[in-house]
Structures are given as C-alpha cells and as structure tokens.
Write a structure and sequence with these properties.
- The structure is a single chain.
- By secondary structure, the protein is of the alpha/beta class.
- It has helices spanning 6-23, 29-36, 40-52, 119-137, 175-180, 192-203, 255-258, 260-268, 286-310, 325-339, 359-373, and strands at residues 56-59, 74-77, 83-88, 95-100, 105-110, 144-151, 187-191, 212-217, 222-228, 231-232, 314-318, 349-352.
- The chain has 3 domains: 6-77, Winged helix-like DNA-binding domain superfamily/Winged helix DNA-binding domain (Arc Repressor Mutant, subunit A, Orthogonal Bundle); 81-185, ATPase, nucleotide binding domain (Nucleotidyltransferase, domain 5, 2-Layer Sandwich); 206-352, Nucleotidyltransferase, domain 5.
- It contains 11 helices and 12 strands.
- The strands form 3 sheets. The protein has a 5-stranded mixed sheet with strand order 5-4-3-6-7, sandwiched between helices. A 5-stranded mixed sheet has the order 10-9-8-11-12, with helices on both faces.
- It is globular, with a radius of gyration of 23 Å.
- The two termini are 27 Å apart.
Length: 375
C-alpha cells in the first residue's frame, strides 16, 4: 500500500509545475498540464497560488489570431522576485554566490584567506562581507528565502560539525550557529558532491532512472557520488560514494594524483613564462601532450573502479579538465575500454558537465527553492 499522502502529492505537483514554467518561459496553462502530468484544475490552483506569491507572472495577449479567437495568457517566471544566498565552504577561499529563483548567479564574491588569523576569524570576515553585499543588493523586505551552505564532507552524526581531513578546523566549529549570527533565514547544509549529483539529475532527467557515477576533479580535491536505483548511495562515513578516499597502488590518495593543480604544476615545467596549456590538445608541445594523456589515463583508472563496482550507464565529470573537450573524454573512454574484458560490449556514456555554475551551488539552491515553494 502506498504511503504517499495528499500533502506529498501537492508538493510534487508544485515542484513539477514550477519546473515547467521555469524551463519554458511564456508557457500557457493548457500546455503545462500534459507536460507536468497533472489536471488543468491542478494547474489552475497552483499557478494562481504562485501568482499570489509573485514568483510567476501571467500576461494576457489581447490580440486575436482570427481562427481561434483571443490568444491564451502566457506565464513567465518572475526570477528576480526572491534571492538565495549560497556559501561555499569547500575550500579555504570561501565563495559566495547569490542566486535568483531561476538559479542563475546574480552576484559572486571570493574571500582571500588570511593565514595570519584563524579559520573562524576568516569565516567571520567573509560572512560580514556577504552580509554587506546582500544588504546593498536588497530591493525589498523578505527578498531572501534561505541560505545554502556547501560543505566538503557530511555533518557528523547529524550534528552541525563537519569532519574533513583537508579542512580539520571544521570539526571544531558549529557552522549553522556561526551563519545564524549574520542571517536570520532558513539554513540548509549539504555535502558538495551529493548536491552536485542531485543537480545533474535535475538538469539531465533522461538519465535520472539509470545508474550514474559523478566525479568532481577540482584544483585540489576529488569527490564522487553514486546514484543507484533512484537513490544517492552513502558509504559508512556518510560520503556520497566519495572516490577521493580511495588509494592508488603505491598508497597515495587518488586526489593527490589527478587534481587539476597537480597537473598544472607538472605542466609548468614545460611552459615558458606566461605561456599556458592550449585547450586543443594537439596544439601543445610533445611533453604537454604526453602529460595530458597520462592524466587522462589516471582519471580513466579512477573511473574504472566505479565501472567495476556497478557498471554505471553514465559517468559525468565536473572539472577544469573540461577545457580539453571531447578529445580528452575520448582518451578516457579508450583507456577504460582497454581495461575491460576483451570482447566486452559495455561502454559507459562519459560526459563533461556543461554547467557554468558549480553543480553543488545549483543543487543546494534547488533544495532551498523547493522547500520555500511548498511552505
């Protein structure tokens, strides 16, 4: 027997209808119903409520097309009516992003970490600057609907403390308590790779019912998330299948062998002053090309671990390596194929994330927006 309540159905319908409006500006009520899989009466009830909240606007076209009479009213997302504050604490250089209801970045700010003072003092300076920006950016009362905090690891035992070997200071501070001193708003805290995974599934619904492996390869850290049978998989430490915790055969952590900053450091020895690596692989020197192939091979070995564990339908990579485009993915795909059993017909779909906004920021923004919409 289903445990879905009337309230659950209402919330799901609100999310589906809002998503259709957000993705199709200028859509009509009649068009929303079949796309969202709900009745026209449900569309009318929910759209009227959204108009009352001023998050969508309805414009009536008074012209006629002669054959069918007056054209139906069109519905538009009023994206700038509300704002969402995003605080990315996954690196020491804290990052602030201000999103609108369309989850588009309106403002950004990066904190320059001062190593002469402590972590918590740096965090206070950052939050004070963010507070000033949001005050100056506000056009109306109650414009902000929530604060999303992106953490580099899960909270310990559902507390507000985070254990991350790369940022050990987080284990000793209560993030929510500190942020609450600056913002009297709903606060959500989420792990970066889990949020990124949810973001990708929202933007790529065609793979949401398939098994997916997401890997984030940043300048310093490496993370992974696994989506199996419609759910994010969590390991014993609460990580979303964090591939960065695995070790290489020589005992080094994977994140120390494929992080983009490691590649940049090695590439620098083959570059002249102020020279940069070319996005077109073949336009680089022989040494750089060889290095690119080496790092693509290391990434392929990392992905191969996930391939062996659960044969994902798709592998999504979010990384600065995206600069090398499809050619880099082809190298990875070929290296994975070489590791498979001869004659294997399995070939995962491998793609770079095409999202300019970091997926974790989109993911936490999505969670805050949906929670506010159904409140």
């Amino acid at each position: 027997m289903s445990n879905i309540t009337h309230q659950d159905m209402r919330e799901q319908n609100i999310k589906k209808i809002f998503k259709e409006i957000s993705a199709n500006n200028g859509i009509t009520r009649n068009e929303i119903a079949p796309r969202a899989g709900v009745s026209l009466m449900t569309v009318t009830t929910i759209v009227d409520a959204l108009i009352k909240k001023r998050v969508v606007l309805e414009h009536t076209d008074k012209t006629s097309n002669n054959r069918y009479g007056r054209r139906p009213a069109k519905i538009f997302l009023n994206a700038d009516e509300k704002k969402i504050i995003i605080l990315d604490l996954t690196e020491r250089e804290f990052c602030f992003v201000l999103l609108n209801l369309g989850l588009q970045a309106q403002n950004t700010f990066k904190h320059k970490y001062d190593y002469n003072i402590g972590y918590e003092e740096n965090l206070d300076l950052f939050l004070n600057n963010v507070k000033g920006i949001t005050i100056n950016s506000s056009n109306q009362e109650n414009e902000y609907i929530g604060v999303g905090i992106i953490s580099p690891a899960p909270c310990i035992d559902e507390s507000e403390y985070v254990y991350c070997p790369r940022l050990p200071e987080l284990k000793n501070i209560n993030i929510r308590h500190i942020v609450k001193k600056y913002f009297d708003l709903e606060i959500l805290i989420g792990e970066d790779v889990q949020l990124a995974m949810l973001s990708i599934l929202d933007m790529m619904p065609e793979i949401s019912d398939r098994d997916v492996f997401f890997i984030y390869i940043g300048n310093n850290g490496v993370g992974g998330a696994v989506w199996i049978n419609g759910n994010v998989y969590f390991g014993c430490d609460g990580y979303a299948g964090d591939i960065g915790q695995l070790s290489t055969p020589d005992g080094d952590r994977i994140e120390n062998t494929i992080a983009f900053s490691t590649f940049e450091r090695e590439a620098a020895q083959y570059l002249k002053k102020e020279e940069a690596v070319c996005p077109r692989i073949k336009d680089n020197s022989r040494e750089i090309v060889s290095l690119i192939y080496e790092y693509a091979g290391r990434i392929a070995s990392t992905i191969y671990v996930a391939v062996c564990l659960f044969s994902p339908y798709a592998v999504i990579i979010e990384s600065p390596y995206r600069m090398f485009g499809q050619e880099f993915l082809d190298i990875i795909s070929s290296a994975i194929s070489d590791k498979l059993v001869p004659g294997s017909r399995y070939k995962p779909l491998i793609r770079f994330s095409n999202q300019e906004l970091p997926h974790a920021a989109y993911g936490i923004g999505l969670n805050i927006r949906e929670k506010w919409l159904v409140s």
